[in-house]
């Protein structure tokens, strides 16, 4: 009798003990809330974003300066390939980073990337310039980037153990699914469009006779608008639907570009208003596009789907700026065709998000998706 009771007790103990799978699942579901461990990773991620996204959002200043100084003898289309390449490598390489992160953790990505950013900026500072201000400005940016990247390398940690069996992050076969394919087209178009105003707004201001200092500050005005533009559309999207908000913001960006920027001429107030309002309404292109992708795929497929989409998007970021530059060059240095090109791309993006919403969820105006 005692042996039978001992056996039953042992079986009950084994049933109540977590298996390897159970332990792994509980690890996956555990998220540190607050405290040094959680907030230090948040701060490290913020530090890592400053050099990469900070430079991306300041392309207009670098374009305006180099096109009138170091690269003044080169065509706008040729100059555009330089800045298009930056966006391309940022998106294309970023899409491939997922499996490396899963398999080896963040340091194998963050440390080489940090070295590359700082070395590139230092080398850029030695390019020829007519006065001392430009090279030292770039060196200061390189120093700040070095500090931010060092903090990121020290603070960023992965929550889960390394997964050496992590798979590839590209799956073009997924484009056979209509929901995912039309969403990818919409994301491609909005990312194709967003870098044209960011890159050319300062150059446009210089072209119409506004002094250089104010022209460079337009990027600051644009980014001031982008601060609330990154999170407020997300709050609204929780109520109205992500695709609905992306269609709306893309349409507003098109109207702002075609009605305000195109007609602003040398009116400084109109140009500043465009920069601020465009910064706000275009912010959703950064914050909501990954969420739109997550809505049309299973959770376990999100890494591959997001990587596939942004690999395709990187082609748009590579070609959008030089195509706009070629249009400007064709028009004899005038910006009308370039501005219309950017506005039409935003209109196409608005239509694409509307179509994606219809294909995925239906055509009712009351649909929240």
Question: Could you walk me through the main structural features you see in this protein, from its secondary elements to its overall organization?
Answer:
The chain is an all-alpha fold. It is about 80% helix and about 0% strand. The protein contains 15 helices and no strands. The chain has helices at about 1-15, 20-30, 35-55, 60-70, 75-105, 105-125, 135-155, 180-205, 210-240, 240-265, 270-280, 285, 290-295, 300-330, 335-360. Helix 3 runs antiparallel to helix 7 (about 135-155), helix 8 runs antiparallel to helix 9 (about 210-240) and helix 8 runs parallel beside helix 14. The longest helix has 30 residues, at about 180-205. The chain is globular, with a radius of gyration of 24 Å. Mean pLDDT is about 80; it is low at about 10-30. It is a multi-pass membrane protein.
Secondary structure topology:
Blueprint: H1 2-16, H2 20-29, H3 35-56, H4 59-68, H5 76-104, H6 107-125, H7 133-155, H8 178-207, H9 212-240, H10 242-264, H11 268-282, H12 284-287, H13 289-295, H14 302-330, H15 336-361
Helix pairs in contact: 3-7, 4-8, 5-14, 6-7, 8-9, 8-11, 8-14, 8-15, 9-10, 9-11, 10-11, 10-15, 14-15
Membrane topology: Multi-pass membrane protein
Domain Major facilitator superfamily (MFS) profile: 179-369
Family: Belongs to the major facilitator superfamily. Monocarboxylate porter (TC 2.A.1.13) family.
